[in-house]
Specification:
By secondary structure, this protein is α/β, with parallel strands linked by helices. It is built from 10 helices and 11 strands. The protein binds nicotinamide-adenine-dinucleotide (NAD).
Length: 282
């Protein structure tokens, strides 16, 4: 499959259809699924993302409530809001949008999201459960990486996977999910010397650094499968990934595009996690 573009759009549509079917059944049974998105920023790209989640939720039959606490919200106000939502029987999924006000950390605040409603895997307990092989919702982006690979029938067991990026929302959970699928996993980060020497050993390379053009053809083994998680805005209002797409696509067996790869699957899975949470909690 030389140079295949591994789109996420078809998979996202399939997941959306499953979500809508589950949401309709829940609503018919008297429990319409509800997602709460807590916002404490005036960041423009965050606002765009929240709008796209709300629109997709409504289309799927999920009630989506955005709680905008303002960019100067106090840490304790955010924590109390998350605790209230965790205790609210009418709410099934909770997302805390980033960025957060100065002094507030996602890893710290997300502890107030009960694990059963932590549909974007932000509570450190969810990551711990994932690492221990216990049920938990992975961050939707991390789950989307594996879902795209599965959709395109990329074998994971026994393959050498390299993840570039070690954040708690993408790099670390992706590494755990790939380990769980029996890949041999290496995680690289900003202090990894000679990145290309490591990445070029990968059968499966996941780029999640947030650095446009970081992964060039020199970083990729011929025949590898490359998943580009990066979303870097360009000056002309576009979006590029971390991968130098054209030369890498020629070298690789397959490459996920940006946009249209991991992104649409991420949103679709976040909503799918929400209806699953609603079914479990109902
Ligand atoms: P982050 O800034 O929290 O983490 C980046 C990681 O990359 C860090 O671990 C850092 O050590 C590593 N890194 C940075 N520069 C590097 C370099 N030169 N060499 C090797 N490693 C390097 O970012 P994040 O939240 O993990 O997001 C990563 C990217 O994924 C961003 O572009 C973000 O926008 C994107 N993202 C996409 C989606 C989606 O749905 N497609 C969702 C979430 C994040």
């Amino acid at each position: 499959m030389s140079g295949l573009i591994l789109s996420g759009r078809e998979l996202a549509a399939t997941i959306r259809a499953d979500t809508a079917e589950r949401a309709a059944a829940l609503t018919a049974a008297g429990t319409p699924p509800r997602l709460a998105v807590v916002v404490a920023t005036d960041d423009a790209s965050s606002a765009w993302y929240v709008r796209s989640i709300s629109t997709a939720a409504v289309k799927a039959g999920i009630v989506c409530k955005v709680l905008d606490l303002g960019a100067d919200a106090e840490v304790e106000t955010i924590r109390a809001t998350l605790a209230d939502l965790s205790a609210d029987n009418m709410v099934h999924g909770i997302v805390l949008q980033t960025p957060l006000p100065a002094g507030a950390r996602l890893e710290d605040l997300a502890g107030a999201i009960t694990v059963e409603k932590d549909v974007d895997g932000a509570n450190p307990l969810s990551l711990g459960r994932l690492a221990a092989g216990l049920p938990a919702y992975p961050p939707a982006t991390a789950a989307a990486v594996v879902a795209v690979l599965d959709h395109h029938e990329v074998e994971l067991a026994g393959r050498r996977a390299v993840v570039v990026g070690r954040s708690t929302v993408v790099g670390k959970p992706v590494a755990h999910l790939l380990l769980d699928r029996h890949a041999t996993v290496t995680v690289c980060h900003s202090r990894t010397p000679d990145l290309a020497a490591v990445t070029s050993t990968a059968d499966i390379l996941v780029a999640a650094a947030g650095r446009a053009g970081l992964v060039t053809a020199d970083h990729v083994k011929r025949g590898a499968v490359v998943v580009d998680v990066g979303t870097n805005p360009t000056e002309d209002g576009g979006l590029v990934g971390d991968v130098d797409a054209e030369p890498v696509a020629e070298q690789a067996a397959g490459l996920t595009p940006v946009p249209g790869g991991v992104g649409p699957v991420t949103t679709a899975l976040l909503l799918n996690h929400t209806v699953r949470a609603a079914s479990t909690l109902a």
